Amino acid sequence: MQNRPVIVAVGRTKFGEHYDKKPEKLIEEAWLAASNECNLERKNLETCYISDCFLPITNKLGLEEGFLSELTELHVPMEATRSFSAALKTACHAIQAGVYSTALVGGIEKMTDRLDKIRDNLMLLDDPWSYYAGGTTEANHELMLRAYIKKHDIQGENLEKLYNALAQVAIKNHANGTKNTYAQFQRKISLENVLSSRKATNKALGLYDYAPVSDGATALILTNEKVAKTLDITPVYICGYNSATDYLGYSSRAELSHFVAAQIAAKKAFKNSSIDMWDINLWQINDQSTMMELVSLEDLGYCSPGTAWKSIVESYPNDKGCYVINGRELYVNMNGGLKADGNPLGATGGAQIYEIFRQLTGKAEQRQVTIDGLTPKYGGALEFEGFGTKAYVNILGRD
After folding, report:
1. Dihedral sign (CA 186, 189, 195, 200)
2. Contacting residues for 346 by C-beta, under 8 A, at least 6 apart
3. For a tag on the chain, would you pick the N or C end, based on fewer CB atoms within 10 A?
4. 99-125 pLDDT, tens per residue?
5. Would the pTM of this model clear 0.90, i.e. be above it?
């Protein structure tokens, strides 16, 4: 990749319920945290990209770009997208093309203020046909679980192991969340907690299988290699990135037990990064539900179709909190994932990149991963828009 984009700083807020903070205060907090890391100021920014899904609805902000211009007191080009990865992808294109040398990428969401108002919008974002049939935002996750069980003919004892594997995903992510001061949930949960929540609602997936609704903001500063070399920082390069799109209606897709968009985006990202899949030991995966993390292990290529649950069961308990697949360690959602860290849609992908950046620069504190005693060299992030409708894969590296 020529003229590679470089992340030189990241910032974020705590995720959770921020009734007392306006959106501008949240994004300002994230931006200032990033700015203080690399001594780049507003005057250095040549363009800005911001992501959100519902600010016009939840906070009556009609043009997010104008809101950001007012906040930064800048009149540079600005664009809004629905997801952080979409904003990052656009910024990467601009940096590679040489149009800009320094860009701010930010994400913001205030969902808890008017959850009842955006509940319908969340359902339409996932699948309009399920919505009109009376489905909820959780319905497609259970439908995918049923499709997975049927396709891979999982029965009897193996079916119980599959359900326990999904529970272990939640347990792992909550344990990781206890080490993340920004996480919405910072307490451990047990297998009994997960199973009891399922029994209480008589459903295959319960309260502890789903990510919460959240408020929060994230930001990063993206430059080219020339600018990065002038800064006293440890740069993290965007080594590869790609995206793919599937049908909006989940029931209309040819494949119901996996996310085809994730499979395509991952293959293309691996190819244009020239990095072998198994050289990436660290991933942030979109775990809007435990089922999505399990399936993503297969869609990314680390597990064969229908086998991820086996790898999860065989990996626990262990002291490292990682999956062991084909004798290799794979660390997933070390910040707690969406499940424990939180899921403010427009800012979620930024939290994924934040965690990978911290891990690769050796600044992840209690969560720091080491591979053979060394800081990881590469990390990847998988973000979705909707229920697997759009998939973004970003591969980051220290060189």
Report:
1. negative
2. 50, 51, 52, 53, 54, 55, 82, 83, 84, 107, 108, 109
3. C
4. 999 999 999 999 998 887 788 888 878
5. yes
